[in-house]
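Review box. Two proteins, two foldings.
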Amino acid sequence: MRLLIVSPWFPYPPDNGSRLRAWHLIQRLAQHHDVRLVVGQQDDAIGREIPLDVPTTIVPWVWHQPGATGKQGALKALFSAIPRSILETPNPAFVEAIAQELSRKPDAVLAMELGSDAYLPDVLPCPVILDQVELSGLEQTWRRAMSRRERTARWLTYHKGKSYWQRRLARYDLLTAVSEAEALSVEAIVGGGKAVAVVPNGVATADFCLQTKPKGVPGRLIYNGALSYSPNKDAVLWFVKTILPKITEKVPEAHLIVTGRSESAPAELVTHPQVQLTGFVPDLKPTLAEARVCVTPLRSGGGTRLKILEAWAAGIPVVATTIGAAGLEGSREGEHLFVADTPDAFAQKAVLLLQNEALSRKISGQARTLAEERFDWDVIVGRLERALNLVTK
């Protein structure tokens, strides 16, 4: 199949969730199809190369058009039917690069994330799959607003976004989402009986060798996520303030390692004696191998947690909130991970895993098996290829 793949994110190295998904899908699809790429290039990707022998057009990414932000941008967005996030990020070069590739008449297009949509033509000339559509955050943001003014503003944003995406997404041959819950959110917004295929996030289980995994540092908990992403910052702050003290009452040596970019970390995390911020770690495997428990105390956000899948592949047991554990198809509480939504329950289950090595090994072993069977990238690409075959028949 002659396949054009469009990715707003530069896919290599896979140092955030979007890049990681793009990289694993691209490299595997390129093994079986005649792939061409159009990719965005963020500032931190300047000078990087993609280690694949695939024809690639690289376009500098535009986060904000000059004059689109601030009061001027807000006023323009107020009277527009287009969401402000779209108005702020025009990129004619990206549009032209996609148009040039479409003139080569590919059999199909795989466009990654909602961020690709604005740069594709209104009339699509061949079957197009829009991958990893995530819209649940629109409603979450509105419903969690605290003040009446904030709730009103976010309600208007939600309904503008809902109307916009209902129009835009109806034109695709297939939409994918990373979880059943996210698929239902997308279907509710798009309407018209449009089906959304579930193509979850994954992990390269073969990259994690369990035979050489040490027992881990006593009391070590790990959270993998950039603190520049607000749901991650909220999760870590809530954990450190309300849960970690309850854990250290029973396990005095307990401490939290936070991997991922931390330049914007609050001072209370930077100076906390039981918190270590590593910054971005190019290879997470050695750091994971030193951990006893992965904690995922998320209270907002959508999708599937790559941090949990990586912990499962590494043989690390997980404690998560219900939101943190969302999208893990086939997982069962108490069998593959522990789920808790209150500080007391979360701390109790973390302490149980820190103190009971036999239980920890049992839970992590069952989770590793689930990751191999359902969440390995090779399995996931098989799902995606079946979807591609359906839309190109």
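Next protein.
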Amino acid sequence: MAFAGEKVGEVYEGAQSFDLVVRYDPQNQGAMENMRNTLIDAGNGQKIPLTYVADIVSTSGPNTINRENVQRKVVVSVNVSGRDQKSAVADIQAAIGQSVQLPEGYRIEYGGQFESEAEASRTLLMASLLSLMIVFLLLYTEFGSVPLATVILLNLPLALIGGVMSISLTSGIISIPAIIGFITLFGIATRNGILLVSHYEHLQTVEGLPLNEAVQRGSKDRLSPILMTALTAGLALVPLALGGDLPGNEIQSPMAKVILGGLLSSTLLNLFIVPIVYLLINRKNART
């Protein structure tokens, strides 16, 4: 109380309130000898100088001591500018690992936004893998064939090509918005594959067309719906992709760029790769 002060009440002046703090005056606070001679209560009720029970010295140290989980901690915070947090933290970890030797009982933990982003990335990864399994099961239930379900899911790596290229040509950072863009993109790409394969099956089973003719006619019939879907989504995302420097577009712009790049690659390659693979699989099954 003598040196740090202690609030003992409040003083009101009009509509404002001020804390009433009791402590030594500045003259007694700043003198080392006065600190040594400050009287404290002893166990027998007497007053003794502080120097009887403590060594009063001038040294450097933290002005406050923070604790978490009953352990002392010191927080060192930084902001990242012009690069992504993940690579910045990786460089920090490498530099600290090479040049900092921690005493026994000390450890370093990396938290804050980096910790939240890492946890979100793990959650999205698990959700993406679970979604792929569910999509595959739904496709297998619908078509009753593992090869046909695999042909449809072939659109995912086709979309991945454009998404990765768009990231490498722009920011080069795989962020949480970019991952969300990939998940959205995979849904659109899977839909395009379903349009083609389901129409191929319809032309063969219902209309009785041969395999080659069914693939050619089915690709022509589904060309317009696939292109219309890609153009509608792509044109709507162009303003978001170009406005990445505007306030509020920090999340929307990376997601839009990934979807645009993936739509371009999946739409173009889907019209060539899927029909070819479908023909190869059905011809192989016909021979067997």
